[in-house]
Amino acid sequence: MSQIHAKSPQHCAKKKLVNISHIQKKLFFTFTTFFSSILLLIIIVWFILRPTKPDFSLKEADIYQLVVSGTHLLNSSIQLTLLSRNPNQKVGIYYDEIHVYASYKGQQITLETSLQPFYQDHRDTNLLSAVLLANALPVAPSFNYELGRDQTAGRLVLNLKANGLLRWKVGTWVSGKYRFNVNCVAVLVFGPSAPSGPLTARQGAQCHTTI
């Protein structure tokens, strides 16, 4: 009579668990390999294209008002025009946020003005215009003194700044958000010999941009 070997239910259960564990491991390694390949492809494309930060230049800055009332409350009105250029051949730029303001000797002299978000295609340029205002903005007590010294010297130097968030676009892929900062220096004729009307700076000098 032949011997009959019967496996216990516990043994079958263990065998089934081993098979399930093996399948889970295969699925895990498959998905890991797939996502790693996609990530590696994105990194390779990124380094091949090497996105270059956008170029900003100052086109025009007009000061219509810069008056201190009382001891240290400033009223200001400045019209600003910047030129933004995307130097990349294969990378587009989404500007999600842009805020611009003016400062003088380290003091902010206008409130921030927000510009509309926009997309900038490859090698494209855009003119960005804003009116910067302040009404009874507190400034340091030395503001009038510094302004008087610059008027005597015949030259006024302002920093026109922009900051915000941008994203890179390569084909259909869009990156996460990156913060950028722009600093433009405007030099204006200021003094007894200055012409009537607004103080104006017109120049095509590059601004300093950091990301």
TrEMBL record:
Give the top-rank taxon of the lineage listed in the UniProt record for this protein.
Eukaryota
Name of this protein: Uncharacterized protein
Source organism (scientific name): Cichorium intybus
Taxonomy of origin reads:
Eukaryota, Viridiplantae, Streptophyta, Embryophyta, Tracheophyta
